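Field log, afternoon session.

UNIT: design team B
ACTIVITY: writing a sequence onto a fixed backbone
BACKBONE:
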């Protein structure tokens, strides 16, 4: 399936396994730039980056991206945002809920959305394309840190509403589940 969206020089295309390391670099950069300063100075952030963005994390993501691209039965779809042929961001949709949003019912999930630079249209282009791939008759959920006010406001502009705050279970901060109800 070919998905294309163009915003100025931005292209949204299916992600490839070869982009996994770049996606992990973007994700780690976002964590370090946007998480509370005391977390980025602690070993917790280094451990998290090593788990999710080290060789094992890159390998796991590459397998997910390959499945999303090559297997029509895969519960995932992954997109890359390219600006002048360089990765500017990415997003992953899951048609099954993960452990992050488990317990909120039959939902599809935005599993990941990370961009290099905010407020340039990349996040909107990726999210809009991901939502276009999803079943409009089902709810969509996502998980984000509770302190990430700019991210929460961004998702609210897309019709998501805070559903519940989750206590820290994988790190030292709370997270929030946001839900987007089905289109009528």
């Amino acid at each position: 399936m070919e998905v294309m969206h163009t915003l100025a020089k931005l292209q949204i295309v299916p992600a490839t396994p070869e982009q996994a390391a770049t996606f992990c670099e973007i994700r780690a950069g976002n964590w370090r730039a946007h998480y509370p300063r005391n977390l980025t100075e602690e070993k917790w952030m280094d451990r998290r980056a090593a788990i999710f963005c080290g060789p094992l994390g890159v390998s796991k993501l590459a397998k997910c991206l390959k499945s999303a691209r090559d297997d029509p039965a895969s519960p995932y779809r992954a997109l890359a945002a390219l600006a002048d042929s360089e990765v500017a961001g990415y997003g992953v949709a899951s048609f099954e809920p993960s452990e992050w949003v488990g317990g909120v019912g039959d939902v599809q999930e935005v599993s990941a959305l990370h961009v290099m630079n905010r407020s340039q249209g990349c996040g909107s282009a990726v999210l809009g394309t991901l939502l276009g791939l999803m079943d409009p008759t089902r709810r969509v959920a996502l998980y984000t840190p509770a302190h990430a006010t700019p991210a929460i406001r961004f998702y609210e502009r897309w019709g998501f509403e805070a559903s519940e705050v989750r206590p820290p279970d994988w790190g030292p901060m709370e997270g929030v589940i946001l839900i987007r109800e089905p289109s009528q």
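LOG NOTE: The chain has one domain: 6-180.
NEXT ACTIVITY: expression trials, pending approval
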